[in-house]
Amino acid sequence: MTETDTDTGTRTTGGAMAARRHGTRPPKALRMSVELPLWRALTGYRILTLVYTACLVALSYRRYAHPLGAAAYMGVLTVWMVLTWRCTTSAERCTRRFLVADLGFAIGGILLTLVVDTHARIMGGGPTLPSIWTAGAVLGFAIKGGWRWAAVASTVVAVANLVERQELARDTIHNVVLVWVASVGLGYVVEVARSSERTLARALQIDAATRERERLARDIHDSVLQVLAMVQRRGAEIGGEAGELGRMAGEQEVALRTLVAGGLVPPPGIRPGGSASGVPRQAGEGAGEGAAVPAGAAPAGDDAGPCDVRALLAPFAGAGVTFSEPGAPVALPPAAAAELAAAVSAALDNVRVHAGAGAHAWILVEDEPHAVVVTVRDDGPGIPEGRLADAEREGRLGVALSIRGRLRDLGGGAEWISVPGQGTEVELTVPKGTAPEGGRRGKAGA
User: Fold this and answer.
1) DSSP string, 101-116
2) How far is CA 173 from each of CA 42, 125, 126, 158, 167, rounded to the nearest angstrom?
3) For this UniProt entry, which segments traverse the membrane (predicted)?
4) Which of 99, 110, 261, 416 lies at a 20 to 30 A Cα distance from 52?
């Protein structure tokens, strides 16, 4: 959902509001309102044209047939401006009643020119009492209601100008057409901008909802789905009542995978029926045991300072996993380090499940100037072409969410290199600070 700040003209997505509720720093607000600058410009226009009109009346004061009438009108118009100048600072303050009253002051001034000015000056093309201030009243209709309102208001002004001039003079027609075209054009532009603004707000809302759904799906994949898969396998091995329990767990796993996969946006680089960039292996088909980050290794919070990635990945080392690290600390923000460790955990879990119990894995940590790169390699059988796309269509989201989705949210990416019979290599990249401009060997999923 989006929330609109009427004073600033900005809208905040649901993700930013959630970040505030959880005490984290929300993303920078995106200014979406195209109307706020227009209202500010209209306010400035009305003030400047009032000053200009007052100067015109002052310079021609002795030429009017009834100069006191002209001065009285300017005094009333000035008071009106002082009392209502804030009405044109935002769409909420600019009501229909105000627009009609403002247009009434303009029309009244045009018609009053017949009384206070001389016939010679009127027929000679002299300015009306409100002069170009009248355009501000018409532009208010254009910004508030679009081109239709602008057409009606400018038509009323045109009729009043023709009545005041008492003939179809060329300069009067020129001014009338100019005001009409300008106001209608501005009204049309405002309508198009509002439509684009609504489309953008809807897109941001869908993007925020999709990212939240992906985050929840990753958590489910790393916990519930893995437990259900384990129960299904163990139940089938034991048999009897345990086998029936395993069968039911398998059914629930399929149903939950279908629910999680529904409505997800396909990660970049993957197309239905095609293969992903880099030809990943079977990682992400299913879930095995132990995909969680090592206990106690998860960093505290963003306030805890930079986290050494080596400390999070070192517990993965064991008889079947070789861990290689630089001699110096590899620092990342705690949240980014935790997501990277979870992605490595998911990659190792896929090695255990799909490469076989005898497969060996290697973890290599590289601290590059602008990114941290972690490579997970195994000596398993590799993967067939297009296997990742097939797994995602079946609702198996290990690569799509637990690996690629995590890194994409951090501005990074993942690349798979696999040769059948020679194992698989997964390269995980997390930028330091901002998203990387490019990637080594064309990283996918960024």
Assistant:
1) HHHHHHHHHHHHHHHH
2) 24, 11, 14, 8, 10
3) 38-61, 67-86, 98-116, 136-160, 172-190
4) 99
User: How far is 367 from 309, CA to CA, in rounded Å?
Assistant: 10
| Alpha-carbon span 404 to 396, nearest angstrom | 13
Tell me the per-residue pLDDT of 151-186, one tens digit each, with 9 for 90 and over: 999 999 989 888 888 777 777 787 788 888 888 888
Separation between Cα atoms, residue 186 and residue 198, nearest integer Å: 18
Residue located via tokens 């998860």 = 298
Q: What digits encode the pLDDT tens for the residues 127-158?
A: 899 999 999 999 999 999 899 998 999 999 98
328-340 residue pLDDT tens: 888 898 888 888 9
Question: Element (H or E) spanning 431, and its range?
Answer: strand 424-431
Query: Which amino acid, 136?
Result: G
Count Cβ neighbours within 10 Å for each residue of 208-233 and write b for 16 or more, e otherwise. Answer: beeeebbeebbebbbeebbebbbbbb
Rounded distance between C-alpha atoms, residue 222 and residue 343, angstroms: 10
CA atoms within 13 A on the CB side of 262: 6
Bridge partner residues of 4 (DSSP): 11
C-alpha 227, offset from chain centre? 36
DSSP 127: P
